[in-house]
Amino acid sequence: MSAEKEFQERIKGLVERSLEKCGLDYRVATEYDSPFGSVIRDQGRRVDIAVLRGEKPYLFIECKWQKTSGSAQDKLFRALEEARRDRLLGAHSIIVFGGGGWSKSIERWALAEGIIRVEWIDIWLEKFFCPKQ
User: Fold this and answer.
1) Which pTM value belongs to this model?
2) Do residues 44 and 58 make contact, with C-beta atoms less than 8 angstroms apart?
């Protein structure tokens, strides 16, 4: 299994654990075809992780892993535009990034834009799904 796939599975497990802890009966899907399509390209879009309430998308999560410097940095910009559009169309949407290959300037930019570093995702999920605990 690739590092990216392992990262996605790790985040999915954290989501499932948070939902269980908060007593929520939502479904978690991976490689989910978004009903909103893509804001960037005139085609469909597959979301890494989708939390569904019934059949309706509730939360989309894009997972971005980068072990060494490379193209994932460029993909953050596109992912952020997709997340903004998801929110306008009624689904919460976040991006989680991890790995040591991010430049310091991209990491600062990502954090300032609300993109979540993997080390903090469990806290974020708990506050999002069960804020009163």
Assistant:
1) 0.92
2) no
